[in-house]
Amino acid sequence: MLRPALRIRWAGPAVVLALVAAALASRAAAPAMGDCSGAAAAFGSAAVAWYDRYRHYLDAIQNGPRDVVGDAARRLTRATDDVVRAGGGLLRCLAALR
Predict the structure, then answer these.
(1) In principle, which of 16, 63, 93, 96 could form an S-S bond with 39, CB 3.0–4.6 Å?
(2) Structure confidence at residue 1 (pLDDT)
(3) How far is CA 73 from each of CA 1, 29, 89, rounded to the nearest angstrom?
């Protein structure tokens, strides 16, 4: 299921950001992670919203007229921007803990 998602041009940055954040989080000490809990929660929320928008986009491609597909694509692009923004905040927080 992830393979088709990687073909979408904006999915790549979101996946890479998630992998980098996971790698940094594993290096940070667990008690210090509490300092970044708000940023982690924002990133998780943005990632869940992105996935919901992605599923809506796939449904629109299969079943919707052109304007519905375009609207779904715009919403997915905004959700991707939110993931990148929240992920950047999480990475900055984690980097500050080092």
Answers:
(1) 93
(2) 47
(3) 18, 38, 24
Alpha helices in the chain (DSSP H): 2-6, 11-27, 30-33, 37-63, 66-97
44 vs 18, 26, 32, CA distance in Å? 9, 16, 18
Estimate the crossing angle of helix 66-97 against helix 11-27, to 10 degrees: 20
Q: Give the model's pLDDT for residue 52.
A: 94
Residue with tokens 């998630």: 18
Contact indicator for 51, 18 with CB cutoff of 8 Å: no
Burial classification of residue 66, based on how many CB atoms lie within 10 Å of its CB (0-12 exposed, 13-18 middle, 19 or more buried)? exposed
Assess contact for 86 and 60: CB atoms under 8 A: no
